[in-house]
Amino acid sequence: MKPQPILWLGGVLLIALVWAPLQAQTVYRLVDDTGRVTFTDNAQSGGREVTLEPLQRIASAAPQKPPLKASPGAPFMPYDRFTIARPESVMRLFSEPFAVEINLRPQLREDHQIRLLVDGRVSQSALHGQAFWVPALATGEHQLQAELLDRQGRVRHRTPPHRVRIVPEG
Question: What is the rounded CA–CA span in Å between residue 90 and residue 84?
């Protein structure tokens, strides 16, 4: 019974197969008649041997959070559309409560919510709906914007700023 030499030979071959690719290979530099430079590992190509320095490793810095964008950009998936539908932009309204409707396509996912901002401040906390009631605002121009929040409450998208002008009654 002589399985030991076969096992020993198999082990040596396995080590050789694993070790060979880990060894540095010689690289040759060729320059053709037009001045084009080519690198190869073929010694018979007639190129000049090149000594390559090992690559330096650079530790990566921790990724930084991107700043909040003033412009909304394209809606994140799975939504194709996220805008304020009503009131119409630059619409004149009287100083009384009014409704804000969000145009969202496809339907709002169960794990997402929308909140409304008036002049950059949260007017209504996040809810799973597309309509908001805004209390009477002071006379003048105001900016409306809606934010789409994921299940962790992170803002994933904002509508474009939407202006309305509140005018005195009469």
Answer: 12
3-state secondary structure of 145: strand
Q: Per this entry, what is the length of the chain? A: 170
Would you write out the chain's pLDDT as a tens digit for each of its 170 residues?
Answer: 555 666 666 666 656 555 555 555 677 778 888 877 777 777 777 788 877 666 566 565 555 555 454 444 455 567 888 899 998 877 788 888 888 999 988 888 889 999 999 999 998 888 888 999 888 888 999 999 999 999 899 998 899 999 988 888 76
138 with 72: CB under 8 angstroms? no
Alpha carbon distance 103, 115 (integer Å) = 13
Instruction: Confirm if 131 and 56 have CB atoms less than 8 A apart.
Output: no
- Token code pair at residue 69: 């964008």
Query: What is the pTM for the complete model shown?
Result: 0.53
Q: Which residues pair with 27 in a beta bridge?
A: 50
Q: What is the H or E stretch that residue 18 is in?
A: helix 3-22
What does the block give as tokens for 97?
């409560």
Q: Which residues contact 133 (CB under 8 A, 6 or more apart)?
A: 97, 98, 99, 100, 124
Q: Are 97 and 135 in contact (CB under 8 A)?
A: yes
Calpha distance 34→112 (Å, rounded): 61
